[in-house]
Amino acid sequence: MLVDSAEQAIERPGDYQEQKKYYSGKKKMHTLKNQFIVLPGGQDIVDICIGQLGKISDITLFRNNRQQLDAKQRFLGDKAYIGEELITTPLKKPKKAELSEIQKEENKKLSSRRIGVEHLIGRVKTFRVASDRFRLARHRYSQVIMAVCGLVRLHLNASFILSHNI
User: Strands 2-9, 29-38: parallel, antiparallel or unpaired by DSSP?
Assistant: First the structure.
């Protein structure tokens, strides 16, 4: 299975303590984070963790929600998941050195297997409510994102059925 996260900007909270919770140093804005776990090739969404605080790292978010999935399940992830033993990640370039050609090829193969999750996140973000700054009431966020994911799954399943009936 493939795992990746995406952040979405939100309105800046008024209270200073609230701002600190939602501020993502990575994006340099106040965000909510969604983590997607999808089937290989981006065929379907298996699990989604919606509306987590923007300051939580991807690997921490994965570890917090890991108990919901099979303990032996292996995943493919990006460099944000380095350090998790059940997630295969690309090799990082060492300091003041280069990756060998073999290591670069391995990274390319891994990226070509992971691209499905990136495409699926892109499909979710085609809906402006899931990509632009979220301006609705924050308690509605999970409902809206679940509806968008449902529409994406409906489209994926319809495409799958059409391609296999021809």
Answer: antiparallel
Torsions phi, psi of 110, nearest 5?
-65, -45
pLDDT per residue as tens digits for the range 43-61: 889 889 998 998 899 999 9
Contact 52/34 with Cβ under 8 angstroms? yes
CA distances for 72 relative to 10, 44, 75, 106, angstroms: 35, 20, 10, 23
Q: Are 37 and 2 in contact (CB under 8 A)?
A: yes
Exposed e or buried b per residue across 5-39, where buried means at least 16 C-beta atoms within 10 angstroms of its C-beta: bbbbbbeeeeeeeeeeebbbeeeebbbbbbbbbbe
For the stretch 127-148, pLDDT in tens is: 999 999 999 998 999 999 999 9
d(CA 39, CA 47): 10
Pairing of strands 29-38, 45-53: antiparallel
Q: Model pTM?
A: 0.85
DSSP 99-127: --HHHHHHHHHHHHHHHHHHHHHHHHTTS
